[in-house]
Amino acid sequence: METRLVRIGESEGEERTQTALWEAAEIVKRGGLVAFPTETVYGLGANGLDEGAAKRIYAAKGRPSDNPLIAHISCMEELEPLTAGIMPVGRRLAERFWPGPLTLVFMKSKRVPYGTTGGLETVAVRMPEREEARRLIALAGVPVAAPSANLSGRPSPTTAQHVWQDLNGRIEMILDGGPVGIGLESTIVDVSGQTPVLLRPGAVTLEMLQEVAAGVEVDPAIQGIPGENIRPKAPGMKYRHYAPRAEMTLVEGEMAAVVRLINRLAEERERNGSRVGVICTEETKGQYDRGIVRSVGSRSQEETIAHNLFAVLREFDDLGVDYIYSEEFPQKRLGYAIMNRMKKAAGYREIQA
Ligand code: TXA
Ligand code: MG
For residue range 136-151, what is the model confidence (pLDDT) as tens digits? Predict the structure, then answer.
């Protein structure tokens, strides 16, 4: 299959953007696959009411089909038909944070096929903030099921080039709207029961959720390795997501000690002929004298760190890095989501400096 890469957005002008969105919507209506930018990461879109389209998503990503998809909507009126009832707290969260980087899990209606929900009785719904994404959904006239547009197991794509690397030849079209804004996948909150439960941290932070839903609980699977007694409620959380090819280790501790330990470990690895990547910050980048050193931004700007993280992991893959050593970040606000993705990328390998 030939994959068309088409630019959209301000640089291309309104007319060309509209034409591209229209063509993409036609592909979705016909049951095909289109990658498109959202404010979080690039999504791989298909008709969310078409079981066959969901199957094609799983095949293109190489993803297990028990991993449910998020149905993306363009306006509030499109929510009701997908659900079998909305709890007041679900409605409050939707009204406060949509459009935006928040996915809400509801009991599903009959309209939503099990092919989209991975066999679950619930459905995950999100109204993206990125305007072109909502226009695409509205033009398609159906909820657009869209996982992140990466091959299963690779970091989520934050540019159209990342999508191209993973899915060229496997999908009909990629809409290139430049780098995304946030760079981490949406926050997921299950509002299908009495108590809202955070299933995946994101840019709508736990602190922000608590302002609207005081009793929000945190799925224990977020904290650590999914094991025998901890079964994540978001099935996707059980896979080794966000994984670079290299073995990644997070180094915790007082900054000067962290830098010293990473330099020492990197030197040992390099002496043995391995290629090493170091993930650090603007504050420390001058202090590393070993490995391929990449700053993800300043410690005072969590947004920049979130924005750069997946691109750096992909770059290390491209450079054939064998071992990655990374500094850690405080787990407050957006830092919670950043550390969640980093821990998963590291397979929960953490050491103390
Ligand atoms: O930011 C995002 O959410 C991006 C963009 C494209 O919108 N999408 C995304 O999709 O990250 P994906 O498929 O990579 O991750 C969706 C997560 C998975 O972990 C999946 O298990 C969970 O959402 N999920 C989907 N439906 C669910 C449901 N009914 N109950 C619990 N978890 C669900
Ligand atoms: Mg994903």
Answer: 999 999 999 999 999 9
Number of H helices, E strands in the chain: 10, 16
Distance separating alpha carbons of residues 196 and 217, to the nearest angstrom: 6
Its pTM stands at 0.96
Instruction: Measure 99 CA to ligand 1 centroid, in angstroms.
Output: 16
Can you tell me which atom of ligand 1 is nearest the CA of 43?
A: 6
Q: Which fold has domain 247-352?
A: Rossmann fold (3.40.50)
Domain boundaries along the sequence of the chain: 4-222, 247-352
Res. 65 pLDDT band, cuts 50 70 90: confident
Start-to-end CA span in the chain (Å)? 50
The two domains 4-222 and 247-352 share their CATH topology (first three levels equal): no
CATH number for the domain running over 4-222: 3.90.870.10
Residue nearest to atom 3 of ligand 1 (CA): 186
CA 315 to CA 172: how far, in whole Å?
Answer: 25
Give the nearest ligand 1 atom to 234 CA: 32
The residue whose CA has the least distance to atom 30 of ligand 1 is 234
